[in-house]
């Protein structure tokens, strides 16, 4: 039976998370934002909190550090709650890229039996670039293995004597890996899963991830680094914030106990406040409820793809089984790039383009409605049916 707009509205009417949408800044109700997996929306609570922290700076000046100094680990503990980690094992600092650099080097330094590096061909570019650079600097081999994008990496792909970096949810296809089934020589990149689905970090040893996607911490917000046993590692960036007894300044370098040793320089206090708010609103909604809604919404999206888009030359670039995918869906089409541009310029739908041929649509259950999914797919169908994407300027822009 065909899916109708009334079906989507009925799903919204019984959605237990529906009220969370009002907690976000949404200035334009006509615009359908399906890119929360690239940059999440601004929570109203974060806007207020940031104003308060700015005022703290204004009134307390350097005295503010008495409270700010613990922000990276305090925020890490707030985040630990939504990514299934123990307190003291998550640090919020730096970008994902820099955290990966630190973690890979720290593991290689302390586990010399790992004699090469590995990742899959489909992994996110920054992960590959970091590994290429470290392999060159250390004279190590980097093995890049092929995977079926719809399956994602499998445990048997992981080379035995390698330190391997994999994404929990593949950034293009959305394939979801069963982390617990993999060897513990894997560093997991949780950029597309943290805040979108339950993760059990207690089952793995190492991870990095992003806070500006599903955790709504804002453009350029710091990432996180997780190590189950941080005291077994030594960071390659020996900075004064990772030093034991930081303010006894004449001492030689000695790593701080615990995850704090992965701090390098002075932490960005405004950003950390935004990460804490993002983690809080996620914890309040409950990650299980978020996942349940996300699955229902990606199911709706896929049903509408089958109903309307298949006939227009689209194929599904994401696993059909809900438990094998994350919270975004890629629709593949030969003309994906002009279609993405037309969606933004002519239909007020915000997706992103992921080469070579994917229109990627992200579901952020805290503020995406079922009817948004319906309307976005309807606008997409109309646009392609009428050939609107053939009328637009297809010059490639710097950000896609
Ligand atoms: C978004 C994303 C990143 C971001 O890295 P930054 O260094 O924070 O810019 C890293 N890895 C993956 C898989 C991502 O999706």
UniProtKB/TrEMBL annotation:
Its cofactor is pyridoxal 5'-phosphate. It holds the Pfam family KYNU_C. InterPro entries: Kynureninase, PyrdxlP-dep_Trfase, PyrdxlP-dep_Trfase_major, PyrdxlP-dep_Trfase_small. Signal peptide: none annotated. It catalyses: 3-hydroxy-L-kynurenine + H2O = 3-hydroxyanthranilate + L-alanine + H(+); L-kynurenine + H2O = anthranilate + L-alanine + H(+). It is an enzyme of class 3 (hydrolase). GO terms for molecular function: transaminase activity. Pathway: Cofactor biosynthesis; NAD(+) biosynthesis; quinolinate from L-kynurenine: step 2/3; Amino-acid degradation; L-kynurenine degradation; L-alanine and anthranilate from L-kynurenine: step 1/1. Its EC number is 3.7.1.3. The keyword ATP-binding does not apply. Keywords: Aminotransferase, Hydrolase, Pyridine nucleotide biosynthesis, Pyridoxal phosphate, Transferase. Homodimer. Catalyzes the cleavage of L-kynurenine (L-Kyn) and L-3-hydroxykynurenine (L-3OHKyn) into anthranilic acid (AA) and 3-hydroxyanthranilic acid (3-OHAA), respectively. Belongs to the kynureninase family. This is Kynureninase. It comes from Solirubrobacter deserti.
